[in-house]
Structure formats: structure tokens, C-alpha cells
């Protein structure tokens, strides 16, 4: 019944758009008409998707909200595919249709340089290096990791991703100058203060959500105005709560899944910086912020779908649609980076960086082989050996006992009689 009403709204909206275009005089500007037609087409598709798309795992504040972001994922993926099939020059100049200020090469800001915390040579402001790093990206880091913690719902995974990304910045600073930062900017400001504080606040919020009583009452059944306002605010909290227990060491399947999640997270983080570099977008541009808002909304749904698929594969027989779209978007963004600037990506790593990564990969593979193969074989061998020792001990105990000896003889005679009958 609700879907029928929403389809009626979609039909009225389409007719209204057509009526407006018939009434007004169409401008003789091809670029303007093209942009207007594309925007109208996207709006009609979003209206259709909000009413007809499949519901996801979340129902608050409303299922239509999450269907909207699912359709936005489709539109964004189609946009990325279009950019991927353009030449480098055409793709960069196409961004001018979105914002005329784009399509111009921008110098990358180097956050390294003078890494003195207290610069005694600057008598006016000896702490100027610290104040230079305290820009708008500091609260962005904090809120970003706060929301990522709400998505992942695991302290260890968040800390691993946070630390691993700092190692990636160390490893790739020869490709992007933006990755060049001071040591205290990496580990004190990023990992401990911004990321660490965001993860801590996120875990406290998760603890509150897990302890909250989820008992809902209709808005019109609440007698007081204070209760009604409280109910409206709680509409933006989860309908129920599911605690994520990833347990990566419990099985090889879960271990590979957790490693894949960490890999996709890190790749999406790197795409943020590389896309800005290859498409000539300044870090403070609103498109960069919109992309982060987009990933915050679709990432939470994708993580829930992945966890449901891992935790209960009998009920969730296939991976959710939003999870597949997020994976496709991340892969397409990476392909755009590879096509638009292969020279930067193929700059060889320094030798000591290569050695560190090879050592880390060998350690991870060694632990995986020991935990899920060698350790299981060793435990199985010890269990068989223990069972044989217990069987031998019981046999010796029975032989040392007269009753046990006679029962063993009777059992042997019975076996001989059965063999003769056969």
C-alpha cells in the first residue's frame, strides 16, 4: 500500500518535471541543458529507488533513508565508470562541469619539513610548527574515526587500521608529498590524539548502545510532550543492537574475511588522497567532504551485511547488495588512479621500505600457516597420542584386576564363538 502511494508520488514528480520543461523556453545553452537533464534523470532514478529498492539491515531513522544511499551508490559507481573511460585530459576537464574552479593543477601541501616541536629560532612563536598542523583536518580525523568505530565495532580492528595507514603514509610519501609528515604528527597527533580519541569515544558510544533497553512505543501513545520529544530523538538511534564479535582467529574463513575488510578500508583511505591528486581537487573541496559523508552512510550498512554473512551464512546465503557496491566503488576508484597517473603509482619503493613490507607479509603468512594448519595438525596428533595412552592405561588396569581379567577372557571367548558361527 505504501509502495503504491510512493509510486504515485514518483509519477506526479515526473509529470511535474515534464510540465515545467514544456512551459518554460528551453535555453540555447547545450552545456546547461545537458547538466539539467542529467540532474533531472538522477532525481527520477533516486525517487524510483527509494520506493522500490530492496530494504537493507537498518530500519532507523527510516528504511527509505538507506534505500536512498543505496541508489546514490549506484549513481556514484556509474559516474566513476564514466570517468574511467575518458582520457586523462577529458576526465579532468569534465570536473569543470561540476565546479568551474576544478580542472586546474594544484600544488600539494607538504606537511613535513621543519619537525621541531619547540623552534627556539622563532622568538615570536616557538610552537608555530604545532599550530600549523592544527587545521580543519584535525576534527575531521577525530569525527572520521569516531564514525568508523561505530561501523566496525571492534577496538583492535580500528587500531590496526589506524596504525597500518600511518605505515602506508611512511611508505608512500615518495609518491605523494601530502603523506610527508613529522614523526609527532604521525604518532602523537594522528594515532594517539585524533584517531585514538575518536576510537575511544566511539567505543564508549557502542557500550551505551549495547546496554540501552530497546523498547519502542508509538509517538501518539506517549502522553507527555517531553516523552514525545525524547521518542523523536531516539528515532535516530538503532531499532535493536547487534554486537560485532569478529573472532578472526576462530577459523580460516573469518581470518581471511577480516584481512579483506582491513585491506578494503586501507585502499578506500588511500583512494581519498590519490583521487584528489589525479583529478586535481583541493583537499578542502566540498566534493571530498561529500565523498566522506557518502562512505560513512554506505559503509555502516556494508559492514553490517558482511558481519551477518560471516556470522550466520545459513540464513544470509549471499553477501548484501550494499557490500558489493562498496567493494565495486573502491575497486573502480583504484582503477581510475591507475589509469590517470600510472607513473606515480609505479615509482619504486625505497629498499628499506620494501624489506619491511616483505618481512611483515612473511610474518603474517607464517602465523596464518601455524594457526590454521600446523597448530591443528599438532593438536590432533597430541589428542590421538593422549587417547592411546589412556586406552593403554585402562587396559593395564583391567589386566591387573582379577574381575577385569576374567571379563576380558570372556569377551575374547565370545569373539571366537562369533567368528566360528560366521
TrEMBL record:
Coiled coil: none annotated. Pathway: Phospholipid metabolism; phosphatidylserine biosynthesis; Lipid metabolism. It catalyses: 1-(1Z-octadecenyl)-2-(5Z,8Z,11Z,14Z- eicosatetraenoyl)-sn-glycero-3-phosphoethanolamine + L-serine = 1-(1Z-octadecenyl)-2-(5Z,8Z,11Z,14Z-eicosatetraenoyl)-sn-glycero-3-phospho-L-serine + ethanolamine; a 1,2-diacyl-sn-glycero-3-phosphoethanolamine + L-serine = a 1,2-diacyl-sn-glycero-3-phospho-L-serine + ethanolamine; 1-hexadecanoyl-2-(4Z,7Z,10Z,13Z,16Z,19Z-docosahexaenoyl)-sn-glycero-3-phosphoethanolamine + L-serine = 1-hexadecanoyl-2-(4Z,7Z,10Z,13Z,16Z,19Z-docosahexaenoyl)-sn-glycero-3-phosphoserine + ethanolamine; 1-(1Z-octadecenyl)-2-(9Z-octadecenoyl)-sn-glycero-3-phosphoethanolamine + L-serine = 1-(1Z-octadecenyl)-2-(9Z-octadecenoyl)-sn-glycero-3-phospho-L-serine + ethanolamine. Keywords: Endoplasmic reticulum, Lipid biosynthesis, Lipid metabolism, Membrane, Phospholipid biosynthesis, Phospholipid metabolism, Transferase, Transmembrane, Transmembrane helix. The chain crosses the membrane at residues 6-24, 36-53, 65-85, 155-172, 184-203, 255-274, 286-303, 323-340, 352-373. It is a multi-pass membrane protein. Catalyzes a base-exchange reaction in which the polar head group of phosphatidylethanolamine (PE) is replaced by L-serine. This is Phosphatidylserine synthase. It comes from Smutsornis africanus (Double-banded courser). The lineage of its organism: Eukaryota, Metazoa, Chordata, Craniata, Vertebrata. The gene is Ptdss1_1.
Amino acid at each position: 500500500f505504501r509502495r503504491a502511494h510512493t509510486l504515485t508520488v514518483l509519477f506526479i514528480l515526473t509529470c511535474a518535471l515534464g510540465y515545467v520543461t514544456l512551459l518554460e523556453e528551453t535555453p540555447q545553452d547545450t552545456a546547461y541543458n545537458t547538466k539539467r537533464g542529467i540532474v533531472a534523470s538522477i532525481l527520477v532514478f533516486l525517487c524510483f529507488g527509494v520506493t522500490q529498492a530492496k530494504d537493507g539491515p537498518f530500519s532507523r531513522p527510516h528504511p527509505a533513508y538507506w534505500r536512498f544511499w543505496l541508489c546514490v551508490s549506484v549513481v556514484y559507481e556509474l559516474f566513476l565508470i564514466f570517468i574511467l573511460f575518458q582520457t586523462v585530459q577529458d576526465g579532468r576537464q569534465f570536473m569543470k562541469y561540476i565546479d568551474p574552479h576544478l580542472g586546474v593543477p594544484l600544488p600539494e601541501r607538504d606537511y613535513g619539513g621543519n619537525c621541531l616541536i619547540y623552534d627556539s629560532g622563532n622568538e615570536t612563536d616557538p610552537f608555530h610548527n604545532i599550530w600549523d598542523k592544527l587545521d580543519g583536518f584535525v576534527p575531521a580525523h577525530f569525527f572520521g574515526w569516531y564514525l568508523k568505530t561505530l561501523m566496525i565495532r571492534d577496538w583492535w580492528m580500528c587500531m590496526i587500521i589506524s596504525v597500518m595507514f600511518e605505515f602506508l603514509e611512511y611508505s608512500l610519501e615518495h609518491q605523494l608529498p601530502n603523506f610527508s609528515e613529522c614523526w609527532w604528527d604521525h604518532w602523537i597527533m594522528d594515532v594517539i590524539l585524533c584517531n585514538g580519541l575518536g576510537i575511544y569515544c566511539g567505543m564508549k558510544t557502542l557500550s551505551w548502545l549495547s546496554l540501552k533497553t530497546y523498547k519502542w512505543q508509538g509517538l501518539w501513545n506517549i502522553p507527555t510532550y517531553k516523552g514525545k520529544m525524547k521518542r523523536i530523538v531516539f528515532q535516530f538511534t538503532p531499532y535493536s543492537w547487534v554486537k560485532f564479535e569478529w573472532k578472526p582467529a576462530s577459523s580460516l574463513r573469518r581470518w581471511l574475511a577480516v584481512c579483506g575488510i582491513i585491506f578494503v578500508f586501507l585502499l578506500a583511505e588511500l583512494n581519498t588522497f590519490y583521487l584528489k591528486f589525479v583529478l586535481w581537487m583541493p583537499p578542502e573541496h566540498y566534493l571530498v567532504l561529500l565523498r566522506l559523508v557518502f562512505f560513512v552512510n554506505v559503509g555502516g550498512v556494508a559492514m553490517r551485511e558482511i558481519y551477518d554473512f560471516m556470522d550466520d551464512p545459513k540464513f544470509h546465503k549471499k553477501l548484501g547488495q550494499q557490500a558489493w557496491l562498496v567493494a565495486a566503488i573502491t575497486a573502480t576508484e583504484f582503477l581510475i588512479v591507475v589509469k590517470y597517473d600510472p607513473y606515480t603509482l609505479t615509482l619504486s619503493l625505497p629498499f628499506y621500505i620494501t624489506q619491511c613490507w616483505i618481512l611483515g607479509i612473511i610474518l603474517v603468512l607464517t602465523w596464518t600457516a601455524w594457526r590454521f594448519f600446523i597448530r591443528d595438525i599438532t593438536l590432533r596428533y597430541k589428542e590421538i597420542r593422549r587417547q592411546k595412552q589412556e586406552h593403554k592405561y585402562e587396559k593395564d588396569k583391567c589386566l591387573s584386576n582379577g574381575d577385569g581379567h576374567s571379563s576380558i577372557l570372556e569377551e575374547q571367548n565370545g569373539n571366537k564363538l562369533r567368528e566360528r558361527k560366521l
